[in-house]
């Protein structure tokens, strides 16, 4: 059963500084990745600076899909994640450059022949991932954690993947904030 559409309300100010509704309705950007059918990105909002500029500017979600947040910005999105299939697990690694390219950044893919899952990737950001509906497994380089509705992951720039072994779609809400690695971590990642 498909998940319900996302309803978004965006506020703003009129010329007198009065609070108004700037947008009220469906999301303007919803993208299904053809390389991973059933994986759907629902773009809610993004900022490109900290502190965020609070104005009445254009909707930042109407451009091309970009997986990571801007370097000093943030991004909020829902992602629908279909169940892993035997074909995907067997041949998915070969399609990951294409999948991550469709998501706006093929360079985030870290998949290798020895990777524990074909969707292994890393972004230089802190990501809050909340399971809204369904179940997932967080896959790291050396461990896995089962996630259920209400689980929250604080993902701090680590190599990871989301495995859906439940047999049913999962919907997650992600809030991504641009980050920078500590020098020791940056050096260890560069040496890999």
TrEMBL record:
Coiled coil: none annotated. InterPro entries: Cupin_2, OryJ/VirC-like, RmlC-like_jellyroll, RmlC_Cupin_sf. Residues 114-175 form the Cupin type-2 domain. This is Cupin domain-containing protein. It comes from Pseudoduganella namucuonensis. The lineage of its organism: Bacteria, Pseudomonadati, Pseudomonadota, Betaproteobacteria, Burkholderiales.
């Amino acid at each position: 059963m498909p998940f319900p559409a996302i309803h978004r309300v965006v506020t703003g100010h009129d010329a007198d500084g009065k609070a108004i509704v700037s947008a009220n309705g469906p999301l303007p950007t919803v993208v299904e990745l053809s390389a991973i059918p059933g994986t759907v990105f629902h773009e809610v909002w993004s900022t490109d600076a900290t502190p965020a500029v609070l104005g009445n500017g254009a909707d930042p979600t109407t451009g091309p899909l970009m997986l990571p947040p801007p370097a000093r910005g943030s991004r909020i999105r829902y992602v629908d994640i279909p169940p892993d299939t035997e074909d995907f697990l067997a041949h998915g690694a070969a399609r990951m450059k294409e999948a991550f390219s469709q998501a706006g950044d093929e360079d985030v893919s870290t998949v290798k022949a020895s990777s524990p899952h074909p969707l292994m990737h890393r972004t230089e950001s802190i990501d809050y991932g909340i399971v809204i509906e369904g179940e997932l497994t967080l896959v790291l380089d050396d461990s896995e954690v089962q996630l259920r509705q209400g689980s929250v992951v604080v993902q701090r720039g680590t190599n990871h993947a989301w495995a859906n072994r439940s047999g049913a779609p999962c919907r997650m809400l992600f809030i991504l904030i641009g980050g920078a690695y500590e020098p020791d971590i940056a050096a260890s990642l560069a040496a890999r």
